[in-house]
Amino acid sequence: MIPVREALEQIRAATVGLTERAQFMEVCGTHTAAFFRSGLRGLLPLNVRLLSGPGCPVCVTPVGFVDQAVALAQQKQAIITTFGDMLRVPGSDVSLEQARATGAAVRMVYSPEDALALAEKTPAREVVFLGVGFETTAPGVAWTIKEARRKNVRNFSVLCAHKTMPQAMRALLVAGDVRIHGFICPGHVSVITGAGLFSFIPKEYKIPCVVSGFEAGDLAAAVAMLLRQRNEGRAELEIQYRRCVYMEGSAPALALLDEVFEPADVAWRGLGVIPGSGLALRAEFAAWDAERKFPGLTLPAPREPAGCRCGDVLRGVCLPPDCPLFRRRCSPTTPVGSCMVSSEGACAAWFKYGGTMDGVEDNMRNPSAGG
To answer: How is 135-156 classified by DSSP, letter by letter?
Structure first.
């Protein structure tokens, strides 16, 4: 990892004489927060623009999934277990946190294993864990499901909303809503899958990709690497995060995912249903699949919050301040949309850091402009 100052000097040198603004998208929510927290966004030249993509798992979880979880708690009297951020994501009518306030059994856990332990302690109650996240967290859920089968814990199940990144990135490129000159690919996902997962982007779409770490020096170096590729007319997959990421990924984790899950068509907030972009439990694990275990839930059609532009933010079509609800009706204490809930959400990052950074708004306005 090169020093931040050196990486910034490389960025400035690479942008001298740049006739078209370089527009790069980071698709990892942790990268979004790190760019803001480190102050790097405000240090980039004005002819480099960063966009946030659909890399926050809480943010891309659709309203209908929250409604389904609330219904399981209210109609089936299940104990819903989930990570903290999911509690506050608004559903059509209420969030899980609000449902808990009216008597629903909703508990925060720190791992799927915590949920399994709860099921073992309360055999008379159904315990449902909300499987939300990308390839990073899915192996832990897969292991827990196998452990539930080994122990024959039948009152435990997973409501699965796990998603995988490649098809979402392909959907962004196919839609063409925003011009992307390069991707900063997610480091955590790549530790599991290997960087090779993203090789189709430079091969098929001729767009440079760099897998980055999360320190300020990592991120600045990744931007410099993308600019170097752009200036040299190259479109390749490069790894900046070499201390943790390899091309091939983790064979045991990938084998575990393949054993428990199979590809599925799933809905993403802002992107709609993307074929093959999700993970569903295989038939042999049906006894631990909440979707199969609790069929026939009475659910009206999900309703998106009026005026919320989270979907556009997740596609890079607009910035959080462009949403009419931002800082007005929508804030981290009173979130209307999912992007304001998670610490990895673009709206939450803009709210916390964006208004205090000189020049950052000028650097990022009008992201859908061609350059």
So the answer is: TTTHHHHHHHHHHHHHHT-TTE
Note the pTM of the prediction, 2 decimals: 0.91
Q: Is the dihedral of CA 220, 222, 223, 224 positive or negative?
A: positive
Token duo for residue 191: 């530790």
pLDDT in tens, 321-331: 999 999 999 99
Residues 6 or more apart in contact with residue 54 via CB below 8 angstroms: 27, 60, 168, 172, 268, 270, 271, 314, 315
Give the integer Cα–Cα distance in Å for 328 and 326: 5
Multiple choice CATH, 4-48+165-239, 3.40.366.10, 3.40.50.11750, 3.10.150.10, 3.30.70.2190: 3.40.50.11750
CATH class, 58-164+249-291 region: alpha beta
Q: Provide the residue type at 219 as one letter.
A: L
Tell me the chain's radius of gyration from C-alpha atoms: 21
How far apart are alpha carbons 361 and 42 in whole angstroms? Answer: 9
User: In 10 A of CB 358, how many CB atoms?
Assistant: 9
pLDDT digits (tens, 9 = 90+) for 184-215: 999 999 999 999 999 999 999 999 999 999 99
**Cα 248 from chain centroid?**
22
Q: Two tokens at 23?
A: 């527009």
Rounded-to-integer distance, Cα 167 and Cα 165, Å: 6
pLDDT tens readout for residues 81-123? 999 899 999 999 999 999 999 999 999 999 999 999 999 999 9
- Encoded amino acid at 283, one letter: A
Partnered with residue 82 across adjacent β-strands are: 108
